[in-house]
# Entry
Amino acid sequence: MDRNAGRNGTRTSASASSTALLWKLRLRAAAAALAAVVFGGLYFFVRQAIKDDVWRFDFYLFNKSLATASLFLIALSLFLTSIHFISRRPRRALAYRKHYGLAGFWTGAAHGLASHLFLPEKFPLPSWIARHPAEAVLGLTALALFGGMAVLSLASVKGRLGGALWRRVLRFSGYTALILAGVHAGVLKWASWMKYIKTFESVLPSLSLPVVLFAAVALILRLAVRAAKRR
# Structure
């Protein structure tokens, strides 16, 4: 009886500890998402004030901050995967990557919904899709892939697919979705990027430019680490 009670107590303690750790990771990812959105909002506000002499923060700027925060968080998740292999503390980096990725997905979903539900004057449906088919397809496909990865992250799905296949599907889905999301941002903001590079007119570039560059660095680093592991 004493042994069984001890085992049950140990299991209960381990379960409570695991639950506490899970919520800690979730809360930190949520805090990171909030910080990214707040930073983006402040950045866009200051840039607009410098560029257009408009001192106003509206829902459009908030929605732009959702977009950049989403891409940043997902790129950060991939970046942490690489840190997992090269850091002296790999477990810490690996523990956060899933939750940053999920935070990025939900932030991206909020951006998509906000664009068409709350900003119909700027993103009217279906006319916006008709005028911007490439951007729409790229964005929706990336979001769908990230959503699929969110489902695949469930432990029950991993058990059904098997560890090797599960990791392979997540890996290539992540690569593809991040590329599509980056191209989506690039197609939408290319003219703004080129104008900034040529003139430096607004002092600050569109925040999407450094975020897309960070996503590219994260992807290249991940591919480099993977290639090094194969040698």
